[in-house]
Amino acid sequence: MKAVSHETASGKLVLRQGDITKSRAQAIVNAANSSLMGGGGVDGAIHRAAGPKLLEACREIVQEQGQLPPGEAVITPGFELPARYVIHTVGPVWQQGNQGEAELLQSAYRSSIGLAAEYGLTSLAFPAISCGVYGFPVELASELALKTIASGLEQTDLEEISMYLFSEKDLSIWANQAEKLFGKGTEEE
Ligand code: ADP
After folding, report:
1. Which pTM does this prediction carry?
2. Does residue 114's CB lie within 6 angstroms of at least one atom of ligand 1?
3. CATH number for the domain harbouring residue 50
4. In this structure, which residue's CA is closest to atom 27 in ligand 1?
């Protein structure tokens, strides 16, 4: 299985295994850090694929409004990416779960969806925000993210939101969670 999709009355939610920089969504979300200066993981991959103009655009944003706090989002062009835009958001660093991590993670998804809707976009792709070096437990992240995405589809004109999971193991955790929340999905190759 490479992807599983869930059709809801208000749009489609797709879980895919793969590299988000290849996504054909109108915007992809970057799991950035507050400095917006790039880094490792998905952030590094997005900056490499988009080219150096992405860093320039991020630098201008930080000059104008300062560092990006966790839970908030900003938008730039996608430059050399297939995606037209990159929405940069900052997820929480997992501490013990009692520092508002859950609320901040949902806020990162919610702010990104809100910005995509403001730009009139119909498709958006997310990586597993905070699930890499920020250490958020994947099981809990998948539940919070999927619930927030489902309400985002309901509350906006977005038609399709994809989650890009990097490993087969992550895809299976997210797919199980989606099945718990929304019932059985449709498997795609
Ligand atoms: P964070 O700092 O928010 O934890 P990371 O980039 O360390 O962000 O990890 C977030 C998730 O993105 C992890 O599950 C990691 O495996 C995944 N990831 C890394 N590179 C890519 C990529 N090119 N496409 C999609 N997901 C990726």
Report:
1. 0.98
2. no
3. 3.40.220.10
4. 42
